[in-house]
Amino acid sequence: MYDFVLALMVVVASVFLVLVVIIIVSKGWRQYVEASMRRRRLELEPAFFKYVVGTDPLDSYLPRPIHRGERELVEQILFDVGRVVKGAVRDRSREAFEKLGYVDHYLRKLRSRRWWARAEAAEKLGLMGSEKATRDLIDHMEDPVPEVRVRAARALGSIRTSEALLPLTRALWDPGRWSAIRVAGILIGAGDESVEILLREFDKMPSHAKISAIDIFGRSRSLKAIELLRELLKSDDADIRARAAFALGAISDPTSSPWLTTALKDPSWAVRAMAAKALGRLKEEDSLEALSAALADPQWWVRANAAESMKNKGPRGMGALLSMLDSKDTYAAQQAVQMLQESGVLDEMIARLAAEDGALRQQALDVMAKLVKLKRTDLLTEMAYTHPESSIRQRLAIILGLRVHPQPSA
To answer: Cα(72)–Cα(100) distance, rounded to whole angstroms?
Structure first.
C-alpha cells in the first residue's frame, strides 16, 4: 500500500510538473510572439501611413515583402489607419486592401457554409469599404441568418455608394424582415449620400417607409431635406405632418420658422405640439408672438411645448412669458406661471423683493401681485416660511395677507 501511494504521488507530481512546464513554455512563447509582432508593427506601420498620404504604389513604401504570417498584422494596421483618416486618404487604404488580396479573401469567406464566417466576412468587408464587394453584400441581405443580413447591411452603409445604399432604403419597405430602427441607424451614419437617395425614392415609398425616412432626415440634420419636409407640412396624413415638423426642428434651420408658425394652427393637436416644440430649437425670435398665442391652445401638450420653446428663446422669451401673466386666457396665464417657476425666474423675482433698486423691486412686486390674482401662491407661501432673508419673508407675508409673520423652521 505504501508503494502504491508513493507511486501515485510521483505520478501526480510529474503531471503537475509537466503542466507547469507547459504553462511556462506557452507563456514564454506567447510573449515572444507578441514581442515579435510589436517589432514588426513598428517596422511596417510607418510605411502604411506614408502610403495612405502619398501617391506612389504600395510596394515603393514597404521596407520588405510582407510574409504570409504577417497578413493578420497588416490587416489590423490598415484597419487602424482607416479609422483615423478620411476622404481620398481613406480611398488609398481601401486600395491597399484590394491590392493585397484581403477583399478577395473575405469575398470567398462570404460564401462559407458557416454563418459566423459569413457574418465576420461581411463586417470586415464593410470596414474595408471596397466597392468591389457591393454586389455580394447586397445578395447577403437575403441571407437566411439575421445576423449576417444585419452585418451585410452595415457594410453597405460603410461603402456609401448609390448602388450600396439603394437596397438599404428599400429595406425600409419591409418592416417584417428588417428592423426600421437598425436600418435607419445605418442610413443616418451614411450621411448626405443616403439622404439624396431617400429623397429620390420618397414618392414611391409606402406610408410606413415614408415615416421612417422623415425621421432619418431629422436625425441626419441634412439641409437637403428641408424643401421636402416643408411640403410635407401640407400632407393629408397628420402623422406625416407632425413628424415633418419635428424633423424641421431637429435640422434647426431658422428659415423654417414661417412654415412651423403656420403649422401651429394645424387642425391636429399632435402637429401643433410638434411645431411648437420645433420652434424652440430655432434661434430666431420672430415666432414669439405665435408661441404666445399657442399658450391658449386647448391641448395641454401644445401649451407645454409652446411655453418651453419660449423659455428656450432666451431673455426675450422669458419677457414674453412674464407678459402672459396678464393674459385674459386662463390656460395661457397658468402655463406661463408653470414655465416661469420651472425655469427659476420666479425665484429670481422673489429675490428682487430685497433689491435696493426701486424699479427692480417694483417689478418683482407686480409679478407677485399677478401670481396672487391667478391664485398661484404655492411657491410664494413656501418662501414666506423658508426664505433665508427676513425682509423677503416679511414682504411675502404682507403680499399673501398672512396675519403673523412666519418664522423660519429650526
So the answer is: 12
CA distance to 131, 135, 377, per residue, from 112 (Å): 20, 16, 73
Q: For 185-227, what is each residue's pLDDT tens digit?
A: 889 988 888 999 999 999 999 988 899 999 999 999 989 999 9
Those residues whose C-beta lies under 8 Å from the C-beta of residue 376, and which sit 6 or more positions away, are 334, 337
How far apart (Å, rounded) are the C-alpha atoms in residues 86 and 81?
A: 10
Q: What is the pLDDT of residue 404?
A: 46
What are the pLDDT digits (tens) for 240-286? 999 999 999 999 999 999 999 999 999 999 999 999 999 999 988 88
Main-chain phi, psi angles of 38, to 5 degrees: -65, -40
Q: Residues 165-186, buried b or exposed e (16+ Cβ, 10 A)?
A: bbbbbbbbbeeeebebeebbeb
* Single-letter residue type at 307: A
Give the side-chain half-sphere CA count within 13 A for 59.
3
Mean pLDDT of the chain: 87
More confident residue, 14 or 291: 291
Predicted confidence (pLDDT) at residue 89 exceeds the cutoff of 70: no
| 58 burial type by CB count under 10 A (0-12 exposed, 13-18 middle, 19+ buried) | middle
CB 194 within 8 A of CB 187: yes
Q: What percent of the chain has pLDDT over 90?
A: 39
Cell of 201: 425614392
Burial label, 293 (beta-carbon count in 10 A; 0-12, 13-18, 19+): middle
Question: Could you tell me the CA-to-CA distances from 152 to 127, 140, 157, 296 in Å, in that order?
Answer: 11, 6, 9, 51
The contacts of residue 106 (CB under 8 Å, 6+ apart) are 121, 124, 125, 128, 133
CB atoms within 10 A of CB 347: 13
Tell me if 392 sits within 8 A of 350, measured CB to CB.
yes
Q: In whole angstroms, give the CA distance from residue 388 to residue 392.
A: 8
